[in-house]
């Protein structure tokens, strides 16, 4: 701990960012930092060792230990980073401390961010040891904004360079002028403005864009002129992104409450940006930042930077720092604009706290998103007028987490995150009708209109009640009312019809689909945010999305498949176009079962010919269940053989006696366990064997398909006792998402077959007859 009488305390508060200098205790240096969107962080200053590349010693450096994070307007439930690397001009900044300790001789910092991912950060100018890190914060004063080398006719704008901001933010006047100029300067009439949940202003083409370079020629460059021949060129690739929907979007946003303009990461890509506090200069130079060239051993000289600017028609140069240091929040600059939808970007190593989904099945709160400008897969044109299927990019995976797609619903379309659930019949959204006892979800609630209601006499209403196994009961003939009972809750709503937009390579293909408008969720404790808006019902009923797509001719066969990658990402496909022609293990499905059931299987441990289940187990494949659930006897048998193996072969693992927040049965090592690979050798594979006459189909369940690592660093059993989880399954066993990782699982209702094959799920298979959609 840094004491309140330490010089570091004085230096921190002299920097003007950390409150008024009042402290709660003389034994510690307290601070409070407030950010642009109302967020704040309260903490204490501490000193600890830092490990730095190319530095043999481990210097002791001060940094903040934030223990109270105040929620701001742009709050996100999880973050992709652990904290902030402060690189501004203050006395306690990272660079100032390195200079004070003699690790570098000059207060110079620079970064180079590659548009292809990665990059470098350097500290010092080469006179001392050069510190290379991964990329992360100054003002060259005022600049005049140009579009296509013509002034936009405004007063000079104050500019700040902030590598902690993903996008570039302009204040109201330059933002509106920029938007007007870009729209007026578009050289092609083939671009159409479109609504995209990623960013406020987007355009689509005749087919999905793969990268900015597909559409760069349609846009013109911006320029910032700082005077003295210091001009920053901003080509289209430095202010545009291509989203996962195949649209191109403006990466310059409206910084509503700001009185200065921020140059963020998008505009600093593919150039080295240098902040020289010794000479009070800021410079930039175009170059490769992706590691294809050897990393520099020292910073470029001023002559190199200025010379490059001259050779590039003064498009880059140095300028003086004219503005005072500013306290700027990282990744929270700007504000919500009314027409902007916000996507959440939780981190890869999210919380493993367990909640329960609407069917009573535990799942993790943590989800994973890919960033909006990372496109995966290839958009393809169907080779025939009647497509046989659609492949849809999915997000939110990992072991074990939500597996969901983004579905665009309504007219105009709005985005919703739907949990892919092969165990539910009805697709439904929470509705603002108004909504009672509703979950806190990522997007605005769906707003129904009277003309969207399905009447009680409609055949869709009859089909819904057939799927639910109940007699039809409507409160009014003008609408189809329903109540769905789950294990620990219920959902009351009405059936509605609206447009589902399937973004395909041949343009947006809107399809009218019936789904539930749930206006009363009968469950207590609804105030906890959940990462999905609702459920995508994909079981075998008549009103499932798959059945409706087939009845409308969007697909020709009732075939469904999904592939969940343990690395992140995955895909869902409809129709049989994506089904591999070989290598799939097939087993018959029970034609009469409303769920996807391969019937009964025998459970084996470590390839032992003798089954550990007392009798064949009734099995259901359910992607909506995060974990796998066994009935009482097979669960106890599994737990017994797993513990027995650990006791004899891996005694360094001991069972956790205190309750882990993730799961019931966990083990800990001498140190925190980070990955399953560290302990995989201590566990054995399980297998489920399904008999079809003389043929046998075996589902292998290796340790990585039934174990997770908890936030506490424990390894936990991802197979749960269904009898204790209040699942009314009458002894049925659920194969959940954790056990389906890294496999393509195929539900073929046409042939009543269920299949699986090991697969690289972060890549969508190509098919000439399929529509590859990005939802």
TrEMBL record:
Residues forming the Peptidase A1 domain are: 1-285, 403-757
Please cite one Gene Ontology biological process associated with this protein. proteolysis
Q: Keyword tRNA processing on this protein?
A: no
Q: Locate the active site.
A: 421, 622
- Which keywords belong to this entry? Aspartyl protease, Hydrolase, Protease, Repeat, Signal
UniProt xrefs under PROSITE patterns:
ASP_PROTEASE (PS00141), PEPTIDASE_A1 (PS51767)
Q: Name one Pfam family in it.
A: TAXi_C
Keyword flag S-adenosyl-L-methionine: no
Give one GO term, molecular function aspect: aspartic-type endopeptidase activity
**InterPro entries noted in UniProt:** Aspartic_peptidase_A1, Aspartic_peptidase_AS, PEPTIDASE_A1, Peptidase_aspartic_dom_sf, TAXi_C, TAXi_N
Q: Which family does it belong to?
A: Belongs to the peptidase A1 family.
Record-given protein name:
Aspartic proteinase Asp1
To which species is this protein native?
A: Oryza sativa subsp. japonica
């Amino acid at each position: 701990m840094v004491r309140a009488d330490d010089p570091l305390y004085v230096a921190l508060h002299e920097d003007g960012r950390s409150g008024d200098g009042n402290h709660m205790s003389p034994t510690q240096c307290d601070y409070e930092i407030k950010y642009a969107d109302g967020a704040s962080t309260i903490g204490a200053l501490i000193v600890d060792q830092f490990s730095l590349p190319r530095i043999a010693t481990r210097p002791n450096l001060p940094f903040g230990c934030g223990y109270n994070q105040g929620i701001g307007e742009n709050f996100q439930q999880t973050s992709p980073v652990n904290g902030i690397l402060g690189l501004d001009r203050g006395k306690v900044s990272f660079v100032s401390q390195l200079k004070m300790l003699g690790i570098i001789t000059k207060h110079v910092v620079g970064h180079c961010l590659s548009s292809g991912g990665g990059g470098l950060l350097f500290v010092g100018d080469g006179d001392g040891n050069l510190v290379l890190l991964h990329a992360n914060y100054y003002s060259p004063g005022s600049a005049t904004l140009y579009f296509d080398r013509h002034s936009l006719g405004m007063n000079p704008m104050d500019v700040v360079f902030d590598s902690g901001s993903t996008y570039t933010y302009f204040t109201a006047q330059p933002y509106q002028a920029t938007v007007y100029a870009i729209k007026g300067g578009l050289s092609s009439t083939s671009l159409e403005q479109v609504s995209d949940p990623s960013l406020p202003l987007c355009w689509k083409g005749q087919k999905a864009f793969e990268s900015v370079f597909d559409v760069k020629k349609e846009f013109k460059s911006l320029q910032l002129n700082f005077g003295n021949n210091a001009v920053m060129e901003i080509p289209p690739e430095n202010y545009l992104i291509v989203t996962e929907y195949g649209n191109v979007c403006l990466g310059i946003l409206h910084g509503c409450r700001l009185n200065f303009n921020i140059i963020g990461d998008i505009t600093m890509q593919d150039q080295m940006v240098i902040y020289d506090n010794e000479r009070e200069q800021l410079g930039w130079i175009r170059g490769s930042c992706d590691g294809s060239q050897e990393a520099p051993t020292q910073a470029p000289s001023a002559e190199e930077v200025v010379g490059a600017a001259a050779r590039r028609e003064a498009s880059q140069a140095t300028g003086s720092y004219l503005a005072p240091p500013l306290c700027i929040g990282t990744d929270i600059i700007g504000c919500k604009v009314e027409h902007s939808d916000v996507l959440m970007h939780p981190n890869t190593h999210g919380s493993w706290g367990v909640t329960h989904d609407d069917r009573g099945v535990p799942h993790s709160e943590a989800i994973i998103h890919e960033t909006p400008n990372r496109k995966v897969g290839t958009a393809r044109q169907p080779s025939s007028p009647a497509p046989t299927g659609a492949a849809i990019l999915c997000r939110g995976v990992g072991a074990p987490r939500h597996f969901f797609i983004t579905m665009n619903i309504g007219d105009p379309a709005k985005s919703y995150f739907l949990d892919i659930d092969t165990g539910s019949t009805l697709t439904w959204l929470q509705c603002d009708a108004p909504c009672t006892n509703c979950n806190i979800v990522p997007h605005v609630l769906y707003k129904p209109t009277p003309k969207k209601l399905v009447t009680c006499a409609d055949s869709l209403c009859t089909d819904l009640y057939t799927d639910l196994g109940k007699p039809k009961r409507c409160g009014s003939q003008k609408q189809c009312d329903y109540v769905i009972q789950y294990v620990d809750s219920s959902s009351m709503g009405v059936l509605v019809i609206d447009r589902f937009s399937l973004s395909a390579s041949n343009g947006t293909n809107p399809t009218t689909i019936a789904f539930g408008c749930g206006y009363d969720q009968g469950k207590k404790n609804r105030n906890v945010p959940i990462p999905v808006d609702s459920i995508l019902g994909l079981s075998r009923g008549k009103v499932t999305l798959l059945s409706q797509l087939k009845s409308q001719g969007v697909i020709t066969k009732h075939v469904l498949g999904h592939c969940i990658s343990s690395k992140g990402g995955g895909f869902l496909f409809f129709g049989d176009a994506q089904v591999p022609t070989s290598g799939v293990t097939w087993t018959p499905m029970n034609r009469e079962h409303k769920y996807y059931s391969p019937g009964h299987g025998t459970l084996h441990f470590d390839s032992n010919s003798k089954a550990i289940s007392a009798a064949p187990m009734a099995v259901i494949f359910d992607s909506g269940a995060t974990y796998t659930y066994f009935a009482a006897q097979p669960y106890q048998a599994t737990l017994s053989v797993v513990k027995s193996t650990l006791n004899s072969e891996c005694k360094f693992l001991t069972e956790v006696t205190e309750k882990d927040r993730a799961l019931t049965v966990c083990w800990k090592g001498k140190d925190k366990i980070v990955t399953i690979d560290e302990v995989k050798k201590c566990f054995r594979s399980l297998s489920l064997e399904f008999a079809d006459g003389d043929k046998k189909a075996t589902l292998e369940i290796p340790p990585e398909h039934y174990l997770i690592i908890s936030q506490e660093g424990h390894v936990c059993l991802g197979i749960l006792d269904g009898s204790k989880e209040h699942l009314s399954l009458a002894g049925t066993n659920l194969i959940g998402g954790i056990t389906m990782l890294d496999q393509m699982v195929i539900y073929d209702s046409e042939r009543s077959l269920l299949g699986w094959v090991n697969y690289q799920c972060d890549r969508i298979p190509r098919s000439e007859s399929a529509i590859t959609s990005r939802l």
